[in-house]
Amino acid sequence: MLAIFKKEIHQFFSSITGYVAIILFLLANGLLLFVFPDTSLLDYGYANLDPLFELAPMIYLLLIPAITMRSFAEEFKTGTMELLSTKPLSWGQIVTGKFAAGLLVVLISLIPTVVYYIAVRQLSADPAHLDNGGMAGSYIGLFLLGAVFTAIGVWSSSLTTNAVVAFLIAIFTCYIFYNGFDALSKLPAFSGSADYYLRMAGIKFHYTSISRGVVDSRDVIYFLSVIGLMLYLTRLSLQRRIWD
């Protein structure tokens, strides 16, 4: 697994693509948080990072599929997947190595946003009144969200040899998992009956819950379950394609 992990990290950062993806994520957040008037922290009147945690999932919706779209698609396209399958590695190790590498890149893109917290603390009239617990919970939720999107992206890449198709599948699936169930729960047909359970099936419900600053074990279990499911489906997809 470690060999796969190192190979993916080296491949990602050996070209300008990796650096551009991370820079664009930070640039987009910086513009939205400090420049554009509709979302600027400077126009909020009080110091917090709520706009970051509201906007970052939408940016991740594009960034993470771009990071993961070549994970397996490129292997199948270049014919190296068959060679990789002959190595003394289990399917679980291959999938986990790819996932861990993608997740590390997501974490690297998230770490510099601590600068935004420092900026908000400096701008605050009374830093002692900052909701540090809520911000910490939001960061945990954003990391778990990134982990789920990474697992979905890796699964999407295992379905096709075309990286662009994998990118589009990942965006659609991530959106459905994040916002689809919440939107579906608002339909009149589900009002007052199944709407709550539909919201619970979506990522947004659990992400919002953690962002309040209380890390509930049920929310963590949900994220880990979705990650496990997507990695299991990735393994099945790879095995089926190799056998075919």
UniProtKB/TrEMBL annotation:
<keyword id="KW-0472">Membrane</keyword>
<feature type="transmembrane region" description="Helical">
    <location>
        <begin position="94"/>
        <end position="119"/>
    </location>
</feature>
<keyword id="KW-0812">Transmembrane</keyword>
<feature type="transmembrane region" description="Helical">
    <location>
        <begin position="12"/>
        <end position="35"/>
    </location>
</feature>
<protein>
    <submittedName>
        <fullName>Gliding motility-associated ABC transporter permease subunit GldF</fullName>
    </submittedName>
</protein>
<feature type="transmembrane region" description="Helical">
    <location>
        <begin position="55"/>
        <end position="73"/>
    </location>
</feature>
<feature type="transmembrane region" description="Helical">
    <location>
        <begin position="220"/>
        <end position="238"/>
    </location>
</feature>
<dbReference type="GO" id="GO:0140359">
    <property type="term" value="F:ABC-type transporter activity"/>
</dbReference>
<dbReference type="InterPro" id="IPR019860">
    <property type="entry name" value="Motility-assoc_ABC_perm_GldF"/>
</dbReference>
<feature type="transmembrane region" description="Helical">
    <location>
        <begin position="163"/>
        <end position="181"/>
    </location>
</feature>
<dbReference type="GO" id="GO:0005886">
    <property type="term" value="C:plasma membrane"/>
</dbReference>
<keyword id="KW-1003">Cell membrane</keyword>
<dbReference type="InterPro" id="IPR051449">
    <property type="entry name" value="ABC-2_transporter_component"/>
</dbReference>
<feature type="transmembrane region" description="Helical">
    <location>
        <begin position="139"/>
        <end position="156"/>
    </location>
</feature>
<keyword id="KW-1133">Transmembrane helix</keyword>
<dbReference type="Pfam" id="PF12679">
    <property type="entry name" value="ABC2_membrane_2"/>
</dbReference>
